[in-house]
Amino acid sequence: MQQNxxxxxxxxxxxxIGNLTKATFYILxxxxxxxxxxxxxSERIGIPEIxxxxxxxxxxxxxxxxxYQAKNNLLYFANNEGILEYDGSNWKKIAIDNQITHRSLxxxxxxxxxxxxxxxxxxxxxxxxxxTFHSLIDSLTPEEKNFDEIWHIFxxxxxxxxxxxxxxxxxxxxxxxxIIKARQSFSFAKKLDNGQIFIQDDGNGVYELxxxxxxxxxxxxxxxxxxxxxxxxxxxxxxxxxxMYNGIFxxxxxxxxxxxxxxxxxxxxxxxSGTQLNNKYIFFGTIKNGILVYNNRxxxxxxxxxxxxxxxxxxxxxxxxxxxxxWAGLDNGIDCIKFDSxxxxxxxxxxxxxxxxxxFDKDQVYIGSNQGLYQISQNKLFDAQKTRYxxxxxxxxxxxxxxxxxxxxxILCGHNLGAFIIEHNTAKCITPNHxxxxxxxxxxxxxxxxVLTGTYYGICLLRWSxxxxxxxxxxxxxxxRESTRYMEWDNAGRLWVSHWFGGIFALSFSPNYDRIxxxxxxxxxxxxxxxxxxxxxxIDDDILISTLNGLYKPENYDNSxxxxxxxxxxxxxxxxxxxxxxxxxxxxxxxxxxxxKLGVLRRQEDGTYRKITSPFxxxxxxxxNSFENIGFYGSEQxxxxxxxxxxxxxxxxDKTRPTTFAAYIRGFGTMNREVKETLLSPSNSDQISIxxxxxxxxxxxxxxxxxxxxxxxxxxxxxxxxxxxYDNAWSxxxxxxxxxxxxLHEGRYTFYVKARNVYGIESNEAKISFEVAAPWYxxxxxxxxxxxxxxxxxxxxxxxxTRKHERARNAEKQKQLQAHKEIExxxxxEALHAEKELIKxxxxxLNNDVVQKEKELTNMAMNLIQKNNFLxxxxxxxxxxxxxxxxxxxxxxxxxxLRRIDKDINSDQQWAVFETHLDxxxxxxxxxxxxxxxxxxxxxxxxxxxxxxxxSSKEIAAIMNITSRAVENxxxxxxxxxxxxxxxxxxxFIMNL
Length: 993
Hints:
Radius of gyration: 57 Å
Oligomer: single chain
Helix content: 10-25%
Strand content: 35-45%
Shape: elongated
């Protein structure tokens, strides 16, 4: 170890910036450019968005003394209870002892260097995430170990510099190689971005550390007795040197001059810390006045203190991160100031109420809110030291302000009490008391002396009084009593009015605009997609109608109005169907709000538009739904009405955002109730891919993962995750930065996570691979044992099955034999039964035949009796006729006998007997014939019966006692009635019936 106790080397000369000609040239360039820089900076009137972190949030002490950003973008804070680590989502505390204050830190190559009272060293985390402290003072002598607090830590080449009031320690990564003692006290140390390290020794001057030696600077004597607080380089190799109590100075080309103090008014800040942003802004942290913000010219452009949003006015540390945010370590808490943003806020501290309208008029600014109409001069508005008391509420305007316009050189104010004219910071209501509310003003076409104002209940006419040189109330126009919040003139001289529920109206007027001559209600019949929920806007002299289905515009067809889909802007606003606000600025840019998101279509040189939405993400939740309002100052600045004030947008301050950012797996551990072990917490790790080499036991197969997307500009980070080996696809995007899995099966897994910020930019895919061991009952040895047991079981089962099969075969044989006997017995029984049934059937048939034969014998006997009786009667009558002498009487008796014979031949009784026999043989043939052919005569039915019996015509003629020709005729008639063709076979038809 080399120890340097010699006096400082004062023989070295400071490097010259350049010759006088170059210096003069640089000064000239600076003078020419400084005005434009000042102009841009001076336009910022609002306070940047500030994010607060208190001790409850970060889990540490109140004071924060130093801030550092590691290569992986994680932020570290030296806190009075340890080192705080922040990844954009989660805070973690690393500490030796909660009672020891950490005042400085540096993160380098996985080590977190820090210093405490009489000790310094570094923290390193193991693979379980446990941080251990490694002290570097073990090799020091007892006298060297007495050095008090370590206030600053720097890296110089490959060395680490630790600065206390008493000593400088230079560490090469293995051991302390140099110790430099202070003559009096090292009260200040600062490393510049170019590698220069400046040290102040109280009462002895300012030195530069070169080659592990202190070399006095040429300008050292000037600062003798002045306590330095920070040194910041600016353009042209100039240095801004701030002292704690003696002001701020600029060192350029060897010349020192006062800098940036003429604008402080009565403010006498005690500067304690400082930093720089984008080589353009300089921030000074004070003991009791918050943060002072300067440009490189030395103009104070912003004061940020407790009244304006900070948690505390004592700024112990300032740091600019890589995203352009300013981090302030406070005496009580931590604040993140989103300074490198085009958005600033005129709200809260200024207490002007919710912003509804703003108007820039010459040297005055009028601000309309829910509290009334405020006035402030433009010079004061752009003054960095303005206060809430510089905003003056104009008397008589208390209440809701809706609109502010300058027409004919006079300011008109639309108020819930009516229309006001504003003159010399006084307000006068010009509408009568019965006129309720004034939404807006629209000057009549080609009439500078007439203005229409939309009210809560219709439209009023204002007329310019040439004698009084002011606007005066003329009348309420009859014929239209709807609330008129939106109204615009078209090129045909019609006034278009929209009412959210009432619909769209086109109003025509008399030549003097003192009378409404026609009211046209525009509905779906004219082409609107909806009759209600439509809003009127005017862009580039065209009337546009915002509907629930996008933008539409009116067209004239033969003096009738038709509504058609607008094509020019809809293609840029694709997906933003519900447009609640449209306004055109003087550069033809189109400002809009759609689906509760603010944006601008910036007009290009070729007439096309470029859609811009990302700068407004932070203010979208603060914009007033349905009461949007944007005012413009100059050609670029926009002022958006929000809750409690206005948001100022400066496009020239908009920055190019990175196309990606980093996501890290921050923690990985078990969820076992008994173990609850953190397996990995990669603090200060820039590893995107992590391989966890230890095998996780099966009892710890329920795991948790924590992760973070390191992005500080906006905290609305979303995550998507996937566990390869378990999940089939990526999860949905969610803001949850913690995931747990329970009862994971054995095997190899890889956990992936990616982040997405509010601008839709996705991070890398961070991953960690690990393996879960199988439980003991699924281990390799267990599987061998299982195999042996399975084989033994198989053999045992085979033997059991063999014996079982033998017994089953024997039982089956017995069963089959028994079944055979049963079947044989059953077949015999069935055969006996069948034989009995057959005998029974034969007996029944024989009985039926006997009965039938008995019936036939009976019938034949009856027929014989009748025939005998008939013949006996004939015989007697013939005998009687034979004894008759009268020839005529004889003939008469013979004729009577013939008739009786004929009658007997055609006897119905005989036919009935015949019919009975026929039915028995031919299954009720006659009944079917009568049912199917109801128009057959008695003789035709007999003919069908004879044909059924297969008789020929000659046989039928003998039975029916008619000629054969008569039978043929009867057959022909029967064929016709049965529907047969003349050549159809009648007998076959009858047989098949």
